[in-house]
């Protein structure tokens, strides 16, 4: 008992990169295993797939007119103002909830997206001498556990500004971009579903902008992303041909689709999806930046228009390098990290997987009402905190309500498996026991 108390002793503050932040019992939900990821910086790690992809995109975008400053070193610790308020998130937006976000305390959190730095970078635009910027960074979200979800992943934010709103400048910039697209080797088929808007209120423009501006700026945004995606997938197709990999059919064209979207800080807003392996994959959210963000960054009213995008790097990297499990990106195993080289896309060669070990945990919830349920992300966090990189997936496999008592029972199946080594039965039993104990202690459940 004494040992257990010692090991769960709660410090009054949290240290991240030598800075201390006070805990808040009502907010703090960041755990040591999450804080361990803060300095891994896969997007800057030489010869790492996420770094290779970031570099490829930065180079392609700057090959057009060298208009983007790059920021790759921002700390993940940001204020709620930067992550949410500066962007116009309403007070009750679900993204703010403790079940989705890692809070350090009530005013400080681990950024959930690179948009948290838009305000700061917009405000530096004048001093950089470039009309755009790209921000790449690790982002943190409490989420489910499976092969495509990990609580830390990477995004690239891109923004491009027209100060003074010169229509001539916009036309000229769009022209240069179009020339680059025209001479690109990739055979692109683009369907823009957002152009079939039944009513403009579905995805409205901002009052202060003219229709012509909206048209030019949104074309510049869409063509920029189409160029980047063409480049990335062209590299992939070239590597498939070079490797003569017969497991996948080599496409001779690339299908993209634009759909309407909603973000609190852009209007209109879109998402772009790519057709790959017989499925549409969402790559990126984007839109025309709401004036409130630009005003928060110190620009004068009605002086400026801008576009913004936010692109997820990990899923694209998994697809390009054919990496089957997102946890591999975090592997320190030589057999993983020695396979990649800066500037090159190649297919990951799987090495033998270590055997997994399955355990079920079944329990009665303490009460019968909705409010006495456990949020699934809280359960995920307990498993993650105890198992670290040894958990492959957690799935609800059974849910049962006793018709007489109204009591609810849940059963979750946990697959323990390491990317890097064999794990023993004793080790798994120990972790499983700790998970069960923590569930009982924190949520007063009755194990079955
Ligand atoms: C955002 O995070 C917005 N900040 C994007 C944005 C920026 C919109 C600027 C408008 C203007 P979203 O939550 O959809 O949006 O995430 C953006 C991209 O990150 C997704 O398209 C996806 O590629 C990737 N992504 C999202 N969640 C995950 C996850 N759990 N694991 C891996 N990639 C993810
Ligand atoms: Mg989305």
Written overview of the protein:
By secondary structure, the protein is α+β, with helices and mostly antiparallel strands. It folds into two domains: 32-337, BirA Bifunctional Protein, domain 2; 354-447, Alpha-Beta Plaits. It has twelve helices and 17 strands. It has helices spanning 2-7, 32-35, 49-65, 80-83, 118-128, 167-182, 211-243, 291-296, 313-321, 334-337, 376-387, 425-443; strands spanning 13-16, 19-22, 68-71, 77-79, 103-105, 108-110, 132-140, 152-163, 188-192, 254-260, 266-276, 279-289, 304-312, 357-364, 391-401, 408-416, 446-447. An eight-stranded mixed sheet has the order 3-7-8-13-12-11-10-9, sandwiched between helices. The protein has a four-stranded antiparallel sheet with strand order 15-16-14-17, with helices on one face. The chain has a three-stranded antiparallel sheet with strand order 4-6-5. Strand 1 (13-16) and strand 2 form a beta hairpin. It is globular. It starts with a helix and ends with a strand. Mean pLDDT is 93; it is low at 1-7. The structure holds adenosine-5'-[phenylalaninyl-phosphate] and magnesium ion. The site of magnesium ion has 2 residues, from strand 12. One of its GO terms (molecular function) is phenylalanine-tRNA ligase activity. Residues 352-448 form the FDX-ACB domain. Pfam families: FDX-ACB, tRNA-synt_2d. It catalyses: tRNA(Phe) + L-phenylalanine + ATP = L-phenylalanyl-tRNA(Phe) + AMP + diphosphate + H(+). It comes from Maudiozyma exigua (Yeast).
């Amino acid at each position: 008992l004494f040992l257990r108390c010692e090991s769960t002793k709660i410090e009054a503050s949290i240290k991240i990169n030598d800075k201390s932040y006070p805990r808040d019992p009502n907010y703090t939900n960041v755990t040591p295993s999450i804080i361990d990821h803060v300095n891994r910086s896969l997007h800057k790690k030489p010869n790492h797939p996420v770094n290779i992809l970031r570099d490829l995109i930065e180079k392609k975008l700057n090959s057009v007119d060298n208009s983007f400053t790059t920021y790759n070193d921002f700390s993940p610790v940001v204020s709620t103002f930067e992550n949410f308020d500066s962007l116009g998130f309403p007070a009750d937006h679900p993204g703010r909830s403790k079940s989705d976000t890692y809070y350090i305390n009530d005013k400080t959190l681990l950024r959930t997206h690179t948009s948290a730095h838009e305000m700061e970078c917009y405000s530096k635009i004048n001093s950089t001498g470039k009309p755009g910027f790209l921000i790449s960074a690790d982002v943190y979200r409490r989420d489910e556990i499976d092969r495509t979800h990990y609580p830390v992943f990477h995004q690239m934010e891109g923004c491009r500004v027209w100060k003074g709103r010169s229509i001539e400048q916009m036309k000229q910039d769009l022209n240069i971009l179009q020339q680059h697209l025209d001479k690109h080797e990739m055979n692109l088929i683009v369907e823009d579903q957002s152009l079939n808007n039944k009513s403009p209120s579905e995805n409205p423009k901002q009052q202060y902008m003219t229709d012509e501006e909206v048209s030019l700026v949104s074309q510049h945004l869409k063509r920029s992303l189409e160029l980047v995606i063409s480049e990335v997938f062209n590299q992939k197709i070239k590597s498939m041909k070079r490797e003569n990999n017969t497991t996948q059919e080599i496409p001779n064209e690339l299908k993209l689709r634009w759909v309407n979207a909603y973000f609190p800080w852009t209007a209109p807003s879109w998402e772009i999806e790519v057709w790959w392996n017989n499925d549409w994959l969402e790559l990126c959210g984007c839109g025309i930046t709401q004036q409130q963000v630009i005003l928060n960054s110190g620009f004068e009213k009605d002086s400026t228009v801008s576009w913004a995008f936010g692109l997820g790097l990990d899923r694209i990297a998994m697809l390009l390098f054919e990496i089957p499990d997102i946890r591999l990106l975090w592997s320190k195993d030589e057999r993983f990290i020695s396979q990649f080289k800066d500037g090159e896309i190649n297919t990951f060669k799987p090495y033998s997987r270590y055997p997994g070990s399955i355990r079920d945990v079944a329990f009665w919830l303490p009460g019968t009402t909705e409010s006495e349920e456990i949020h699934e992300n809280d359960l995920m966090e307990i498993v993650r905190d105890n198992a670290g990189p040894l958990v492959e997936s957690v799935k609800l496999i059974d849910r049962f309500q006793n018709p007489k008592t109204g009591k609810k029972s849940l059963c979750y199946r946990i697959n323990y498996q390491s990317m890097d080594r064999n794990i023993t039965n004793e080790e798994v039993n120990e972790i499983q026991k700790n998970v069960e104990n923590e569930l009982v202690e924190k949520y007063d459940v009755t194990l079955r």
